[in-house]
Amino acid sequence: MKGRQDADAVDRSGLRLCLLKQQAQAGDITLLFGDESEALTHPYLAHAWAKRGCDLRVEAPGQSKKRAMIGALDCAARKLIVNTSATKRSGDFITLLGRLDAIYGPCPGRPDKPVVFVLDNGPIHTSKASRAALAARDWLTIEWLPKYAPELNDIERSWRDLKRHFLAHQTFTDIDHLDRAIHQAIADMNHERQSPMCTNLRIAA
């Protein structure tokens, strides 16, 4: 991945994101990081303790099925907003934009704060339909990441934490079971991150 990067573009983008994060922490802007991931009905295996000499076994019967997750991370609020879907297509991304309209778009009584949405150049974001949907939202400023630089997208750490700490070592009976578990896990993770006194230190990002 590193060998395919434009190092100068990555450095410039990194500096730009640092400034945007400072503005978000100061309350001057809302900074969102967007991307997609997926979860499986078969267990995600992470580090775990087991008794010496014993193997940790997690049942995984049948064929694994997956659920797409299309999300946005509110950087300052430390809140993950996710729609689940059977696919990761432009229409699914546009559905997420509709949800962002309701949360951050212009609304009577809502502070008129600039909103910056950080996105990579994946086809789900750059398709003709997605470009048109983004352009129609003049309240939303897009900050495009350079190619092959997932390390600059803060939502990647949220996906990692969600799978490693909230969905790991579980087998889900079907897609509906998985879907419910994803949304409950996101609610639990957001609650932990926003608690004033975090007694559970497993979430670092």
Describe this structure in words.
The chain has 205 residues and is α/β, with parallel strands linked by helices. Helices cover 38% and strands 18% of the residues. The chain has helices spanning 7-25, 90-104, 123-126, 128-135, 155-166, 175-194, and strands at 30-40, 66-74, 79-85, 115-119, 140-144. β2 (66-74) and β3 form a beta hairpin. α2 (90-104) runs parallel beside α4.
Summarize the structure.
The chain has six helices and five strands, in the order αβββαβααβαα. The protein is α/β, with parallel strands linked by helices and 205 residues long.
Strand content: 15-25%
Mean pLDDT: 89
Uncertain segments are none
For the termini, the CA-CA separation is 23 Å
Radius of gyration: 18 Å
Count of DSSP H/I helices: 6
Topology as a string of helices (H) and strands (E) = HEEEHEHHEHH
The structural class is: alpha/beta
β-strand number: 5
